[in-house]
Every structure is written in C-alpha cells, then in structure tokens.
Specification:
With 162 residues, the protein is mostly beta strands. The chain has 2 helices and 10 strands. A 5-stranded mixed sheet has the order 2-1-10-5-6, covered by helices on one side. Strands 3, 4, 7, 8 and 9 form a 5-stranded antiparallel sheet that branches. The protein starts with a helix and ends with a strand. The relative contact order is 0.21. The chain binds ligand MTE and molybdenum atom (MO). The site of the ligand Nc1nc2c(c(=O)[nH]1)N[C@H]1C(S)=C(S)[C@@H](COP(=O)(O)O)O[C@H]1N2 has 12 residues, from loops.
C-alpha cells in the first residue's frame, strides 16, 4: 500500500510543469542559437536611447537594446557575413495582437546604415505601458511610426527565396 502511495506521488511529480507565461521575445529561424529574451533579462544587454515621434508628431525617448546586438548573439549573419545569399534574408517581427512587420537584414546592420533599431522596454524614463509593452521595436528615422511595433513576442529570420 505504501509503495503504491509513493508510486502515485512520483507520478504527480513527473507531471509536466505548466508553461511559464512570463512575457518574452523569442528569436528563431535562420539562427545558430535560438534565444528567448525575458523582461527582467534585458538589463544584461547593451542599452541605448533613441527618439521616436508618435503618430501625432510628438517626440518620445525609448531605451533598449540594439536589435543588431540581439541578432549577433543569436548567430544571425550580420556584419561581414551579411553579403551574397545572406542579403536575401529578412527579419519578421510578430506582435501579441497579430501585427507583423518585415525588415531586410541590411536595414538593421551598422555596416549598411547608421539607423539604430532597438528592442525597447522603457519610454521617457518609465517602463512601457501594458498596451505597448513589455517590448516595443523602435524604428527611428521613418516618416511614420508604423513599423515601431509594440507588444513584440517573436522575431523570426528567414530566407525570402524558397
Ligand atoms: N503591435 C502593434 N504595433 C503597432 C501597431 C499595431 O496595430 N499593433 N500600429 C502601428 C502604427 S500604424 C502606428 S502609427 C504606431 C503608433 O505608435 P504611437 O502610439 O507611438 O503613436 O504603432 C505601430 N505599432
Ligand atoms: Mo499608423
């Protein structure tokens, strides 16, 4: 009888732990090291601040990690490796509400452009509000903020060719 109880207990212990619902951004696809970035781990990454006008033309500051640093860490072909066939790769950014925006890798690489696209978690010195956060892709230097996607949950790198 006791053995049976122990058996039951072990079975309960072996039940899968429910998946954590911690907000995160997954980086996958044409990467050598898939990553998951959690809200509390963004502090470990390099940080910069950029400005972005909102849809009403008002300036706001956003702080976060350059997207290039994240892609490099995941082993995406950036920098010297971004040539030849690799120039046909894109980054698709996916959001909690289904919004999706696309970038060619060259748009995000400092050997092609001075523009610094960041994965931001703060605006004007505060954490992003719930409806915009915890992560927003901030794309400075465009005429409108339509590609500055909020509630980012996934970033996928793929070849545009099949
Ligand atoms: N996830 C998500 N991000 C989004 C959108 C959206 O519908 N969903 N709209 C975009 C558009 S069209 C604009 S103009 C800006 C608005 O950003 P703002 O609130 O800072 O002005 O958010 C962009 N980011
Ligand atoms: Mo917009």
């Amino acid at each position: 009888m006791k053995l049976y109880t122990l058996f039951l207990f072990l079975n309960v212990c072996a039940l899968p732990v429910p998946a954590q619902q911690k907000p995160a951004v997954k980086v996958s696809g044409e990467v050598t090291m898939p990553l998951t970035i959690y809200a509390d781990s963004l502090a470990q990454w390099p940080r910069i601040t950029v400005n972005l006008k909102d849809r009403d033309g008002k300036d706001h500051s956003y702080s976060g990690t350059p997207i290039q640093a994240i892609l490099e860490k995941a082993g995406v072909t950036m920098g010297k490796q971004l040539r030849g066939k690799n120039l046909s790769k894109y980054l698709m950014v996916k959001c909690a509400d289904g919004y999706e925006v696309l970038f060619s890798l060259a748009e995000l690489d400092s050997s092609f452009t001075d523009r610094q696209v960041i994965l931001a978690n703060e605006t004007d010195g505060h954490a992003l509000p719930a409806d915009k956060g915890p992560f927003r892709l901030v794309v400075p230097g465009e005429k409108k903020p339509a590609r500055s996607s909020f509630q980012v949950v996934e970033m996928v790198v793929k070849f545009a060719k099949d």
